[in-house]
Design goal:
alpha/beta
């Protein structure tokens, strides 16, 4: 039986299909080269864990108890609407080491063949471009990206190691300067991606990128899956990092759906949030 959800907000409550839920947001139509639509997604527990660290190796990973097939389907629907995916060097290192799964392509699994067709029907390229954000520029390029002929770009700060910048460019990978230090900053990255013609940008990154996007007012939307589990643990990650965000962290709920079945019969919420932009006060004339 196809998965069903209960829409709780905006009301009144309504039974809806899971498949197609996020495709109906038409994210690929909401941005432009002048103002790309930038969105991110996270899955977390009731106690705010998005990742926990292995007590032996120290490597962080998504807690298996908050993963589900329904959440993964919606993740793929978000990915299917992107002109480009922004990932980071740490993910590529973990991918090469076999610690994480490859999620940089659409239509390569039985469950998302329909999304490859959806991209074609909506005028998008066969695969989204991949933008690798990195301060160290120390990462491998996945074989899958080369095999699928995906466009690959690298984003870094102005103070990145010049030798590694030159080496990447010599291999044919354009390097975008998006920050005055070593790290990538939100607003400069979005401006550079817009200048390259990208209209819908999906952040497959982590707390650091989400934080810089919020601080710079560059995030357009946040999707959050909240699983009804308390994970605990002493070494963990949450959605944001760095100094307190203040008013830049204000978000307003725009939709909320309830999945009673997954994961493991405990249930989860699928929430969508829009950043609250500061109001501009126009001074009255004389």
């Amino acid at each position: 039986m196809a998965a069903r959800l209960l829409r709780l907000f905006p009301g009144p409550p309504e039974d809806v299909a899971l498949a197609g839920l996020y495709l109906s947001d038409a994210l690929h139509t909401l941005g432009s080269a002048a103002a790309p639509f930038v969105y991110a997604s996270f899955v977390g527990s009731l106690d705010g864990r998005i990742a926990v660290s292995d007590t032996v190796t120290g490597a962080s990973h998504l807690p298996v108890e908050i993963t589900s097939e329904n959440d993964f389907r919606l993740f793929l629907e978000l990915q299917a609407q992107a002109d480009c995916l922004v990932t980071h060097g740490g993910y590529l290192r973990d991918l090469a080491a076999g610690r994480l799964d490859d999620v940089l392509q659409i239509g390569t699994r039985t469950m998302d063949h329909d999304l490859a067709r959806w991209r074609r029907e909506n005028g998008l390229s066969a695969q989204p471009a991949v933008v690798i954000a990195s301060a160290s520029l120390d990462f491998p390029i996945p074989d899958s990206v080369i095999r699928q002929k995906q466009r690959v770009l690298v984003a870094t700060g102005r103070q990145a190691p010049p030798g590694r910048v030159d080496a990447l460019r010599a291999r044919g990978f354009p390097v975008i300067v998006a920050g005055e230090g070593t790290s990538v900053e939100g607003a400069p990255l979005v401006r550079e991606l817009g200048a390259l013609g990208f209209r819908s940008v999906y952040l497959l990154t982590g707390p650091r990128m989400l934080s810089t996007m919020l601080r710079d007012g560059a995030l357009s939307r946040l999707y959050l899956t909240i699983t009804h589990r308390v994970v605990g643990g002493e070494d963990f990650h949450t959605m944001a990092t760095g100094p307190r965000l203040g008013s830049a962290g204000r978000l307003r709920l725009s939709t909320l759906h309830y999945d009673a079945a997954e994961p493991d019969g405990t249930g989860q919420w699928f929430a969508r949030f829009e950043p609250v932009r500061p109001e501009r006060h126009v001074q009255a004339g004389p």
